[in-house]
Task: inverse folding
C-alpha cells in the first residue's frame, strides 16, 4: 500500500489515467435548458446534480452552516439570528458547480435551490 501511494504521488495526470486513476468527469449542464418543457428540464437538472460524486469523507468541502457568526443581541421578533441568507446559499451553489468537488446531501439541496430559482 505504501509503494502504491508513493507511485501515485510521482505520476503525472497522463500516468494516473494509464493506471485507471483518472479524475471523475466534470458535471455539465445541457445547453438550452430554458427552452425545454418543465418535466424535461427538471429531469436534466436531476441528472446534473446526480453526476456529482458523493463525498464519503468526514470532511466538509463547502460552508453549509446556518450562519458564520452570531450577531450581538440575538434575534428580533422571535426570528433566529442564525438564518442563512438565500444569497449565501446561491453563492455556495455557484462554488459547488465551479469546483466540482464531491458533495453531500445538503450541497445537493443547495444546487437544487440554485438551479430551479
Result:
Amino acid at each position: 500500500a505504501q509503494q502504491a501511494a508513493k507511485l501515485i504521488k510521482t505520476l503525472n495526470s497522463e500516468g494516473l489515467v494509464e493506471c485507471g486513476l483518472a479524475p471523475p468527469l466534470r458535471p455539465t449542464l445541457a445547453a438550452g435548458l430554458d427552452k425545454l418543457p418543465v418535466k424535461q428540464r427538471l429531469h436534466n437538472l436531476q441528472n446534473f446534480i446526480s453526476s456529482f460524486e458523493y463525498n464519503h469523507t468526514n470532511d466538509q468541502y463547502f460552508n453549509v452552516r446556518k450562519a458564520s457568526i452570531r450577531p450581538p443581541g440575538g434575534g428580533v421578533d422571535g426570528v433566529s439570528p442564525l438564518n442563512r441568507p438565500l444569497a449565501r446559499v446561491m453563492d455556495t451553489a455557484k462554488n459547488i458547480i465551479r469546483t466540482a468537488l464531491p458533495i453531500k446531501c445538503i450541497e445537493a439541496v443547495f444546487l437544487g435551490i440554485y438551479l430551479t430559482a
